[in-house]
Amino acid sequence: MQSKFVLPIFLVHLCFFVNIGSLYARDDGHEIKRDTLSITIKEAEDLFIKNNLSLIAGKYQIDNARAAVITARLFDNPQFGFENILYNPRSKKFFDTSKEEGQQAANISQLFHTAGKRNKNIQLAKIGVKQAEYQFFDLLRTLKYTLRTDFYKIYFQQQSAKVYAKEISSLAKTLVGFQQQYAKDNIALKEVLRIQSQLYTLQSELNEVKDGIDDVQSEFKLLIHVNPKLDIVPRLEFNLDGKNVLQQVTYQKLLDSAYTNRYDLINAKSAVDFSNVNLRLQRAMAIPDITMSVTYDKQGSFVNKYTGLGISIPIPLFNRNQGAIKQAKIAIDATKLAVTQQEDQIQSDLDNSYQSADRLERLYNSFDPKFKTDFNHLIEEVFKNYQKHNISLLEFLDFYDSYKTNTIQLNNLQLNRISSLEQLNFITGTQFFNQ
């Protein structure tokens, strides 16, 4: 008989170690409440624009490209040379600088680029600035998509965690009552163990959900650059229930927007412009540049104090930049092909995502809006009927498991629907939905 009381006492003590739906962490036996950051999607985007380190680094790349334009505008520096006699055998002096016996020579030269090479290099540098800006805006598009999808993942996963916490709380109370009844020989041990087993399963599933939330929160906090010890609590400010949001914009408008506003596609088109200018530059490189020079020689020429004007130009006999010109032509064909591939990929991605979003919208809107409210009311009545012994333990647990499964599936469906709309925003490069 003594062993019959030892087991329930052990089970009761074990329940006190269960952490139910709490934002507390344990440190040396003490509970520490973590600070929370309640935030809307608009507030998150504002922090993201202001604090994101990847965006700040992207702005540096733009500044770096602008500095390259300054470099391209600069002219080549003139070259200056000076020569003094090392040893004068007549005066037997080293570095003789005397007026009568000394000998010095000097020259200054300037390289002049022909065929508009400087202007073409400036054009390439300016295209480089545009490409850096396009890359920045495409990075912004990508990171913003990650930010928004993470926001909704956290929100709906936390809603699912609340379902687990509510069920765990109810079962924990039920378990305590069962342990008390078992101690009085009113119920069998198997019923206590059945509740306890269900409770442990739910706690394990809740832990997995919280692990998933923590992973997404970690990425989200990096994007907005806030204290990693904060717990993010998203606040949803819109409701898509019963709305046919896809009907707001035609498919053709989505496609046109993608072709117009996708900065990765614009960047691919700018690569064609870059290749065209580069071809003109490489052809210009085949035309020799001219070097002009002025020379002064004190006593080393056929007359004293000789001055001369010189010009030099390489003869394009062997090297006429043939290889670079051919490479530039190939680059034009390659970049044009890349643009076509990018457009095909956008059209394919849009069609796939649009079909998925349409299915999810029709599926979600097919649910009765009162379903969730009625189901929550039903599970409360089930719990009351179980307490009154109107239904069995297995029926009670089956109802609870069905409630949990359906509620979590509904949360996942809402998440998938919103994520599909965010995917359309990402593909089109325009914030059509979920503003």
Walkthrough of the structure:
This protein is α+β, with helices and mostly antiparallel strands and 435 residues long. It folds into three domains: 1-76 and 116-237, Up-down Bundle (Outer membrane efflux proteins (OEP)), CATH 1.20.1600; 77-112 and 288-320; 245-286 and 322-435, no CATH class. Helix content is 64%, strand content 12%. The chain contains ten helices and ten strands. The chain has helices at residues 2-15, 41-51, 53-73, 117-183, 189-224, 251-261, 263-285, 322-365, 371-387, 393-428, and strands at 24-27, 30-33, 36-40, 79-84, 87-88, 93-94, 104-112, 231-235, 290-297, 306-312. The strands form four sheets. Strands 4-7-9-10 form a four-stranded antiparallel β-sheet, with no helix packed on it. Strand 1 and strand 2 (30-33) form a beta hairpin. Helix 2 (41-51) crosses helix 4 (117-183) and helix 4 (117-183) packs antiparallel against helix 7 (263-285). It is elongated.
Short description:
This protein has 435 residues and is α+β, with helices and mostly antiparallel strands. Helices cover 64% and strands 12% of the residues. Strand 5 (87-88) and strand 6 form a beta hairpin.
